[in-house]
Amino acid sequence: xxxxxxxxxxxxxxxxxxxxxxxxxxxxxxxxxxxxxxxxxxxxxxxxxxxxxxxxxxxxxxxxxxxxxxxxxxxxxxxxxxxxxxxxxxxxxxxxxxxxxxxxxxxxxxxxxxxxxxxxxxxxxxxxxxxxxxxxxxxxxxxxxxxxxxxxxxxxxxxxxxxxxxxxxxxxxxxxxxxxxxxxxxxxxxxxxxxxxxxxxxxxxxxxxxxxxxxxxxxxxxxxxxxxxxxxxxxxxxxxxxxxxx
Length: 246
What we know:
By secondary structure, this protein is α/β, with parallel strands linked by helices. Helix content is 38%, strand content 11%. The two termini are 31 Å apart.
């Protein structure tokens, strides 16, 4: 089971990256896009948090929205023809779950979040492993229980903020059900109307969802009829499912 970080370099080699995991017989893969902003702080920290209004500077190892969209589409094109039901790529599985109206297997694709708190070495508890910043500290395990902190009003508000803070562009998007604005950590861009909280990777995700929509429709239909979604590989091979090339 591997978490594979997609950065500004390997994002341009999606199939090489994917083939590496296939060669070592790793069948469960989470491809995680790296997006960070640099903003120096007096205490020595260099990463910007969502709570800070200053935009900071995009780290040079971050991927672009275009890279992310191309990466996912290229990866999916091989997976859907050869590997469905054999290699499990988290974002593809979660996309299909959202297509089915089920809870996805990763919080970034869910409507709300706040269930992935993190404990640091000294017992400090933070709202999420992507939000280990002072403004998101919930407390310390020596003075409060995990139940108290993770079920606090503050943490519930953090989880609900994911949907409540979506800009109008997202709420009117045809793929809101599939994306849910992705991780709030990456919502530091603005819409064409100047509204804040747009996900930096929005363009890439939209490209991906648009590309996979007919395949997801087919696999959803198979599942609803109690047939394996892996049937899509045979359908593509036999020409029963024809999709316009992008």
